[in-house]
Automatic annotation (TrEMBL):
Residues 72-291 form the Histidine kinase domain. PANTHER family: HISTIDINE KINASE, TWO-COMPONENT HISTIDINE KINASE. Residues 1-10 have a biased composition (Basic and acidic residues). SUPFAM superfamilies: ATPase domain of HSP90 chaperone/DNA topoisomerase II/histidine kinase (SSF55874), Homodimeric domain of signal transducing histidine kinase (SSF47384). Keywords: Kinase, Phosphoprotein, Transferase, Two-component regulatory system. This is histidine kinase. Pfam families: HATPase_c, HisKA.
Length: 299
């Protein structure tokens, strides 16, 4: 009886061991299968990373080629445009003999077209420099009276005072700024030029006020055609232009406002627009009063 019990116990133990072995084999097979799947997934991930890196290199190369093309093209255009402007100026001054009224109109048309092309070239060159990281900031202390005076003198010859008044509000009581005055002036020039283009009657007003204790807001407000709300978000993107009958008669690259945005960011600020169709627009830039801390402020 005892032998029978022992035999049954041994047979039971053997059955458990066999079942355990089978389970281990099954687990080992699942582990091997999982390891193979992981290896395959890792290889796929590595291949994807390599492909993404390759695409990133191609994008960087394409961006570099585009920047170089814009730079080379801009430089190549500058020389003939400068010659056209110089010759037009000589003709307008009648150094080689008097011109008739119609001839003066034709020379003025040539000068205007050449200046517009020159502005486009400058915009393209600035874009190429920014994308290539070759734009530098040169901050210095300056007075806003001087900035507004320079802008006023620049636009005086081209403003049709019979139809549009260009008004500069005196920046009374505002502190001096420590920033790149040339970049700030370029932003405001673009704002003013756009406002003058799209304002047939009324005024374009340039103003400045403190936005906070450490920032200042420059604004250019016009009584022009205005811009629909749905277009506000895209205005400061590259090559964007407002679709209007007036726009179709005016040349431009659609880069001016985009460059304003990039220059404002370089100055530590931001740009924005408030506009209503048929009422007018306000383009503004907000920048810090001081771009960087000076070791010793001047008196």
């Amino acid at each position: 009886m005892t032998d029978n019990n022992t035999r049954e116990t041994d047979e039971g133990s053997s059955g458990v061991e066999i079942e355990t072995m089978r389970e281990l084999e099954r687990l080992r097979a699942e582990t091997d299968s999982l390891r193979a799947e992981l290896d395959e997934t890792n290889q796929g991930v590595l291949a994807l990373y390599a492909e993404l890196e390759d695409q990133a290199d191609q994008l960087r190369e394409a961006s570099d080629l585009k920047s170089r093309f814009l730079s080379y093209m801009s430089h190549e255009f500058r020389t003939p445009l400068g010659s056209i402007l110089s010759i037009a100026s000589l003709l307008s001054d009648e150094l080689d003999g008097p011109l008739g009224a119609e001839q003066h109109k034709q020379v003025a048309f040539i000068s205007t077209a050449a200046r517009e092309l020159s502005d486009m070239v400058d915009d393209l060159l600035d874009l190429a420099k920014i994308e290539a990281g070759r734009i530098s900031i040169s901050p210095a202390w300056f007075d806003m009276f001087d900035l507004f005076s320079a802008l006023r003198g620049m636009f005086r010859p081209i403003v049709d005072t019979s139809a549009v008044d260009l008004i500069f509000e005196e920046p009374v009581g505002l502190p001096r700024l420590y920033t790149d005055d040339q970049k700030l002036a370029q932003i405001l020039r673009n704002f003013i030029s756009n406002s003058l283009k799209f304002t047939q009657r009324g005024e374009v007003r340039v103003s400045a006020r403190l936005e906070s204790e450490d920032s200042i807001r420059f604004a250019v407000t016009d009584t022009g055609i205005g811009i629909p709300q749905e277009l506000h978000g895209a205005l400061f993107e590259d090559f964007i232009q407002v679709d209007s009958p007036l726009q179709k008669r005016l040349r431009g690259t659609g880069l001016g406002l985009s460059l304003c945005k990039r220059f404002a960011e370089l100055l530590g600020g931001r740009v924005g627009v408030e506009s209503e169709p048929g009422v007018g627009s306000t383009f503004f830039v907000v920048i810090p009063l001081a771009l960087a801390q000076e070791p010793a402020d001047e008196a």
